[in-house]
Amino acid sequence: MIRGLTEKMIGPLRGAFLLIVGFMVVLSSGIQDAIRLILSMDRSLLEIVLLSLRVSGASVLLGAFIGIPLGSLVGLRRFPARDMIVTLLNTFMGLPPVAVGLAVYLMLSRSGPFGVLGLLFTPAAMIIAQTILVTPIIAALTHAAVGGVDPLIRDAAKSLGAGALDQGFALLRESRYAILSGVIAGFGRAIGEVGAVMIVGGNITGSTRTMTTAMVLETGMGNFELALALGMILLMLAFLVNMGLHLLQGKG
Description:
This protein is mainly alpha-helical. The protein is built from eleven helices and no strands. The chain has two domains: 1-40; 43-251, MetI-like (MetI-like fold, Orthogonal Bundle). Helices cover 80% and strands 0% of the residues. The longest helix has 38 residues, at 2-39. The termini are far apart. The mean pLDDT is 80.
């Protein structure tokens, strides 16, 4: 009886072991092919990576241009709607990317108010969607950075005869590393975005295909080498972004 139970157990275990071994072999082979693809500087791979960096970089620059002044204003000034703005910024930090993509799609479609511009399924549409996603992050983290500065710095600047504007610049200078950390966090959100950019960009080869959208497409097509190569590059970028964020937070 015991021998029969053992034989019944060995069969499924052997099958599971063979499946695991087969998976590891396929994964190892795919990783090797992906590394060779990266080292060969494949043209299609480079185009996808460069487009991703260009779109995400432009989005973060626009987001910083809007978010840093907004976050600084909310952090430095007291006005009636301040608490409401802070609440909205913190809420919008978690905006669903697909919802943002759908909203931008409707605005830029032919029947939308900005359809005449012809921006849908272009990198510009992707930049708009990503800017909407990263701006609240940068603004909220800027507000937190400015608000976290020791009030003694403002008092010291005031005692030295500094005006309100100079006092604000002193606080911004003191919190510059924390503000830059917010910008880097925004870039991390942008470079890993897939839902919104796929909706408004269309994932068009050579035009709007980013690393994340290409990974989705290539995985569905069974082209695991390119998908793994893009995944490795994305992980390296995420590591560099987080390492930079950690160093800046330490300085801040």
